[in-house]
Structure formats: C-alpha cells, structure tokens
Amino acid sequence: MQRILILGAGTAGTMMANRLVRVLSPAWRVTVVDRDDEHLYQPGLLFIPFGMYRDDELVRPRHRTLDPRVELRLAAIDRIAPDAREVRLVGGEAIPYDFLIIATGSRIVPEATPGLTAAGWRQSAFDFYTLDGADALRGALERFPGGRLVVNVVEMPIKCPVAPLEFLFLAEAFFTQRGMRDKVEVVYATPLEGAFTKPVASAHLGGMLARRGIGVVGDFATAEVDGTRRVLKAYDGREEPYDLLVTIPAHAGAATIAASGMGDGSGWVPTDKYTLAARNHDRVFVLGDATDLPSSKAGAVAHFQADVLIENVVRAIGGRPLAPDFDGHANCFIETGHGKAMLIDFNYTTEPLPGKFPLPGIGPFTLLGESEVNHWGKLAFKWIYWNLLLAGRELPLEHRMTMAGKQVA
User: Fold this and answer.
1) Of 165, 226, 304, 341, which one's alpha carbon is 20 to 30 angstroms from that of 261?
2) Domain tally for the chain?
C-alpha cells in the first residue's frame, strides 16, 4: 500500500486528510501525525479575553475531526528525512511515505524577545494566541482599573494578521460598555507603517482606529520589554510605557522543520507560491501556516490552498504537471466591536476593496465596511469550521479571488 503522510492535524492538515480519503483509491493510505489529541479552534481565542466564548467551545479531540479512514498517529516528530522519504518520530520509529504534506503550522516564541517572559509575564504582559494566555488575559481585563493599554505586534508574519486589530476594537467596546473608556488609553505599536499591510485597507482601518481614540505607533520594531518598569522598547530607542501589555509575540515554524534543515531562518518551508510544492524537495508539498508564502497565515487561506493542493496531489500521483493555481487568496472577517464586523477579500496582487460579497450588489456581506450581518457571519464561522471546513466539505467560495462585487476606484 502507498502512503501520503501529513504532518500536523491542525486546520490545514485535517482538512486535507479528509479530502484525500474521498478522492484517492483504496490503494492509498492517508496518515496524519500530531503530538496530541486536542484540536483548538484558534479564531475563538480572540473572544476568550472578553468572556464571549468558553474554553470548552474551542477544543475537540482530533480523532473526532478526522474521517475514520484516516490513520491518526499521536507522536512527537523528531525530524523529516526527505532523501530517505521517511519521517522519524521521537523514540526512533520511522514512517515511510510516497508523498509528504507538511502542515505543521506556526508557533509563538515569546521567549525570543528579551525580557518579555521575565518580570511581569502573565501579570502585566499577556498574549491571546494561546488558550492559557487568553484565559489569563480575561482575568487581567476584568481587574483592570484603567491606565495605558498597549497592543504590540513584535514582528511579522503572524497567525491571523487582523487579530491584533480585532482585539483593539473589542477592547474599545469592552471598556465603553463597562463605562470606563475615558480611563483607558489604547495604543497600537506595530512594525508596519500603519494599521495593515495593504495601503487602501490600512488607511480605512487606521481611520476607524483614530475615530475610536486608538493611537497607532508605526514602524515600531520591538527590541525588548522591561517588565519591571513596564516599558516596551524599540530598536531605534523609542519607548512605550504601559500598564497592561497585550503582545502578539514573534512567530516561527515548527521546531521539526528547523531540525530537519528544511526551513528558512524562521522555520518556514520554502514553497512554490502557485503550486504549493516544496521548492527544494521532491514529492513534498506544504500547506497552511508552515509555508514561507507572502500570503496571510489564516484558516481561510489554508482552505483555498487545499482546493489547489488536492488537484496537485492527484496530478503528482499520475505523473502530470502541477497546476499553478493558488493566487494568494485571503478572506477575513474583522470583528470591530459593538456588534459589527467588516470583511476583506484580497490576494497576492489585489488588495482589499469595497463592495459586496459573495453576490455582486446583494452580498449579504459588506467588503471594507462595517455591518451587523458581517458580525453574525464572523460568529457563524465557528459552526462552519467544526462541521464543514474541517470535514473538507465543498463551500460556495472560489479558491481564486474574483473581482465580482468589488468597487475599483
């Protein structure tokens, strides 16, 4: 029997495994390897600090999210040996493969920033990119008497690039609803020039932040954190004092990738931006956050990538040329507080534009504009995630971005 081996049972790996067992013949075994049996709904972490979700709504056993035909191996990966076409597990066992899909995701490395995890960690400095961090931050927000709240992105890239903005909007709404908005100064310190990576969206989102009294400190390259003094320091000497720091720590690829010598300096796997084939290794593909692609590290992107990769795996098995069909498509709801959200839709070459989605002129979702419908779409995504997206079901979205419904100036 021939084997497709998938490393990682997160969003990308689970979705891909469930689709592969439906399209491949019984001569192929699909095996997924992950270190534990807990699948986390990562988009829900944003809502934990504000008491909008419970922990148990965000975690399910991995084996329940996978088709029974998928073989799940719970084990720690030591390294990948692409020349031998095998993956070696901690303990010495080796799993051979005919094709390998790397879906090992990304991880936060707060310890990489000097001082961040020293004095004040989980006391005056918190993250919300982990369940433990989001839970701790919920308690800190409930106890916060007022002062200077600084949200800081240490460096790019990060998982879900819009999440820091969403946190800012939700924090503003949270403090307004508690009747203490005038007691809190909210500041966004970012390594980007403005609020977002794309100029039109950055100007639009920056204007929204300004109207809500949220300051933006751009080009802020974080060098270290002085938790004793409660000061965030940049490489250029600037300092941002805080009473409460919400950090989006530096991200890196899985340690396994570095140990295997297959990644760049941050552990991202060099990947063909159109076919999703690993650039330096035969019979290896990369999916989701593990890639080094100039696209968002987000679940929707992994879904669009999977549409392309499922075809390319079938092509590779049949010895046919790969289809260069992934265009960097990203589609993200941005929660903006007060029961509203906005939606952005973009790809490698086209930035977010105003309009209606998915039906031109009808929507029901508004692009680059706030609406209550968008907010309900954001909340509905949790059900879609557990019941359709992970299962690899067909969704009424094209993997290629279209200009239908978009307004071009």
Assistant:
1) 304
2) 3
Q: What is the 3-state secondary structure (H, E, C) of the chain?
A: CEEEEEECCCHHHHHHHHHHHHHCCCCEEEEEEECCCEEECHHHHHHHHHCCCCHHHCEEEHHHHCCCCCEEEECCEEEEECCCCEEEECCCCEEECCEEEECCCEEECHHHCCCCCCCCECCCEECCCCHHHHHHHHHHHHHCCCEEEEEEECCCCCECCCHHHHHHHHHHHHHHHCCCHHHEEEEEECCCCCCCCCHHHHHHHHHHHHHCCEEEECCCCEEEEECCCCEEEECCCCEEECCEEEEECCEEECHHHHHCCCCCCCCCECECCCCCEECCCCCEEECHHHECCCCCECHHHHHHHHHHHHHHHHHHHCCCCCCCCCCCCEEEEEEEECCEEEEEEECCCCCCCCEEEEECCCEEEEECCCEHHHHHHHHHHHHHHHHHHCCCCCCCCCCCCCCCCECCC
In angstroms, rounded to a whole number, what is the distance separating the alpha carbons of residues 158 and 202? 17
> Is the domain of 114 the same as that of 240?
yes
- Residue 382: what pLDDT? 95
Q: Which pLDDT belongs to residue 283?
A: 97
Backbone torsion region of residue 51, taken as left when φ is above 0, otherwise alpha when ψ lies between -120 and 50, otherwise beta: left
Count how many Cα atoms sit within 13 Å of the Cα of residue 303 in the half-sphere of its side chain. Answer: 21
CATH code of residue 165: 3.50.50.60
Q: Which of 270, 224, 25, 239 is nearest to 114 (CA)?
A: 224
Residue 48, CA atoms < 13 Å, CB-side half-sphere: 27
Positions of the chain with pLDDT under 70: 409
Q: How far apart are CA 271 and CA 296, in angstroms?
A: 14
Model pLDDT, residue 409:
66
Does 188 lie in the same domain as 90?
no
Residue 409 within a domain: no
306: tokens are 């999977």
Q: What is the pLDDT of residue 195?
A: 83
Tokens of 56: 């148990």
What pLDDT, on the 0 to 100 scale, is given for residue 327? 97
Tokens of 328: 């960097």
By the 8 A CB rule, do 368 and 374 touch? no
- Residue 399 within any structural domain of the chain: no
Domain endpoint, select from 250, 269, 300: 250
Q: Give Cα 297 to chain centroid, integer Å.
A: 4
